[in-house]
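ASSEMBLY PREDICTION REQUEST
Request ID: AP-0331
Submitted by: J.K., bench scientist
Number of chains: two
Total residues: 889
Priority: normal
Notes: Please return the full assembly, not individual chains.
Input sequences:
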Amino acid sequence: MADFFNQFPPHRDESHSHDDHGHGHYDPGFWAKYIFSTDHKVIGIQYGITALCFLFFGLMLMLLMRWQIAHPGMPVPIFGHLLELIFQHPGMPNPAAGGVISPELYNSFGAMHGTIMVFLGIVPLAFAAFGNYVVPLMIGAPDMAFPRVNMASYQAYFLGGLVMTVSFFIPGGAAQAGWTSYSPLATSIPTHGQLFWIIGMILLITSSLLGAVNFIATIIQLRAPGMTWMRMPFFVWAQFVTAFLLLLAFPPLEAAAIMQLMDNVAHTSFFLPTGLAVGGKIAHVAGGGSPLLWQHLFWFLGHPEVYVLILPAMGIVCEILANNSRKPIWGYKSLVYSVLAIGFLSMIVWAHHMYMTGMGTVISTFFQATTMIISIPSVIILTCLFISLWGGSIRINTPMLFALAFLPMFGIGGLTGLPLGFNVSDVHLHDTYYVIAHFHYVVAPGTIFGLFAGVYYWFPKITGRRMNEFWGSVHFWCSLLFMNLVFMPMFAQGMAGMLRRMANGGANYSAAVNSHAGADVIGGLSDSIMALHTPILWAAVCLGIAQIPFIINFFWSISHGEKVGSDNPWQSTTLEWQTPTPPPHGNFEHFPVVYRGPYEYSVPGHMSDFTPQNEPEISTPAAPKIPTTAH
Amino acid sequence: MEIPYTVEARPDTGLYNAKVGIWLFLSSEVMLFGGLFSAYILLRVGAVPGTWPHGWQNLTLGTINTVVLALSAITTLMAWVACKVREFGKFKFFHACTLLLAVTFLCIKCEEYREHLNHYEIYMKDGTYADGDMVQNDAAQDYIVIDGRYTKNEMDLYDLRSQKVVEKELKIPRSQIQDMQSYGPWHNDYLALYFTLTGLHALHILCGSVVIGYLWGPGRKLWKTDPERFTNRVEVSGLFWHFVDLVWIFLFPVLYLT
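STATUS: Completed
Returned structure:
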């Protein structure tokens, strides 16, 4: 553990480095070194740890919800009493009375599960944590372009997470209107949870804005000499496009959040239509607002957000596949152009989330067409990654297992999205468990597997030690099995017509309940469909248990893992492995110079099966022109 | 190892880091205000015909504020030019002007807000409307006094461009009032947009003033050690300031003139 914490030399404020010359080192102590650090690696680790905690929190919320769905009205085992204590507020009915999750509490768990997983878990881990740690190293930069902005970005994220977490404990609890927070529902719920949600979101949006500016500026400005655009590792390209999506797609949601905030506190009616009735009574609002406006602004972020979640994972998978198949990536340029095309197209597909709002067929047709078109670059990326394996000398290790599993899992997630993209088939599938299964295949066994792959892959660079391979593969095989057991049955449930967001798991639509009550319901949910809730619950519990080997492995390996023999334990070509382990403050002893592309594995005639990007060309004497540097 | 291109431009991009950063930031700001402007378009197009307000703003104050911001754009540019030609005294003068103009703008904005918040639409029990500036609203009295007019038709209150509004002091007993509401953001969508858009814009003016005030005040010591870097800071903050001015150039016709 001591090695790990001693890796970061005393903090120095980069922006005042001119004044600090010759003053020697000073040790500002623990706080400046680890909490208020401007070093991109420390910030990356801060983001990573915080995001992993939030992912675990989101998983716990999911387990509670799955219990409620499978056993509506029954007290939650083990945690029931704790819930009752947490949500006890004097003078208010307890939403977890007797350890039973009330529909209101279920709604707030659902809203916060989505919010936490997307905005506090995956984006910070995929974009901010890996991006911060790896991107500057990969492009040969000493740090991010704006180290203090980087610190502010983490602090805004941390505050946003704090606001979201605190909202659970206020009277009335956290936001209940879903992670999409559709108005007027979000404005009509008479609790303060939504207010906390909006303020939390504004902080999180600020954080990702600062991060995105920093990433793009870093990639444009701080590439090492010789690191041309087409020599950048695909991971850097993926982060570059992701940063643009965050930069341009998030602000409209911020605008929407500001308007919803005004609806909440200044009693405006941006999203509240004339004649709005709440609880059977005409609401006292000015009216004239448009609920569709919220949906457009939300999904203008919401759809690019999907690619914010998936692109960094694709980047990670690409690095790991190239490294472990010991072979150049097939179609590197196709990958780059595809990711750029995805970035552009993702901005014009948003209304495919809104086919059921009565937009009109012309608009639906447009968004249906763009949605089908965007699947083309996604398929190109997946195909390139698959073909890259062909004829490779494949090494199987934990990162490779996760990276390999990403391909079919993301494939399932992507292909099941097509029926949702066609507005005719979407009419049947909209808002059912089919949708849940579809997007969870994209982000859970898709993105999260990519992120696990990244954690296992870069762990040796960060700590100087490897994670345990055996427990890594236990973690992988159990996660793979239970992920599929959780989400595969949901396709069947959704196609049978089970709606999402129902606190009792659709019991009121079940054929059994309705026939018992004497109602003759055609197309009620059959017993076999309803019975799937129980195996899903236990698969979810097992999925949670399967993360324990990872958590223990993670912390144990920091201090007890097998030490790496070299700075480049995976024999990789990219620049982040051509530094000391762990990289010191400033990353490189001198500016690295890049002579070749990112995936020169198994070059014929070369001594080893990998050629690092900074290895000079011996056969050709003409070295690349080196731009002059600042210092 | 130091971070390169903090002051000098990178040869292949021709830009220093902060300039790339501010342009990216501004592109994000375009999307932020773009989201709000799109809300404006959607709500205005979707409004019941005849109910979108016209002529509700104090054009004199709005025009003065437009001129104030345009002047501040010039002084900001001059402050940067002064740094470029290494005349620090002129920099101090021009940015002092910028700060004064910014404060002027905010004061005028406050006065406009006050006027709106003091303006009431009163729905009488007999079905007519009274509309005007509140003169006296003392809870101890059983009447209120406004400086305004009576009208039978609420539609008269929306488009003030074609009307000759004669205002006089009206004493209204509280017993005759059904409901009354000030012209705050809660009053209708137009005012909601007006307060949100100009409020966010004023927030930008405030933040820009803080940055310029920092460079003018405690931040000026960088001039002695690294004038080039200081000049870059002035340029970057100036770019932001020009963007904020530009937003006003859109806001003024959209909210005041149409």
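REVIEWER COMMENTS: Chain B has two domains: 23-116+187-257, 120-182.
SIGN-OFF: pending second reviewer
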